[in-house]
Amino acid sequence: MSLGDSSRRREGTSRGPHGILVGAGLRPSTLPPSRGFPGGGESVAGPEEAPAASPLLEDLRRRLRAAPRGVSRRSREEEAAEAAREEQSRARVESALARLRAELLEMHFQNCQLARTLLDLNMKMQQLKKYELEIASELQSSEDNVVNME
């Protein structure tokens, strides 16, 4: 029970079937049956069975009958267009991923080449240091021999 329900009770109104407000003295049983609703006695009839109605009501009925076909056709077309866009998007993503994979493989290959080059340079530097130490050692020993001879 909401706040609005208590004020309606004081005014003598309440909710009837289908949530329609019913004033004091008017009960759903005293209202004429409605077409197309439970207890209305009639089903929704085509335009040939319907009593003469205003042009606005006829226009609304025509639009309601035409809407499901137009909506379903449009929704199928929209779904097909959406599926095509998604497929194109997936293709672009797959293409970008393939390019990135190729670049990563190339970078990996270059990284291995650089690592080999650095290892080779390090080995040559070690050999040069060893050679330098040998030369320095030979020079020292020859200087020592010269000093000892004198």
Automatic annotation (TrEMBL):
Top-level taxon in the UniProt lineage: Eukaryota
Region (Disordered): 1-90
Compositional bias annotation for Basic and acidic residues: 1-13, 74-90
Name used for this protein in its record: Alanine and arginine-rich domain-containing protein
Protein source organism: Neophocaena asiaeorientalis asiaeorientalis (Yangtze finless porpoise)
Source organism phylogeny: Eukaryota, Metazoa, Chordata, Craniata, Vertebrata
Gene name, Swiss-Prot/TrEMBL: AARD
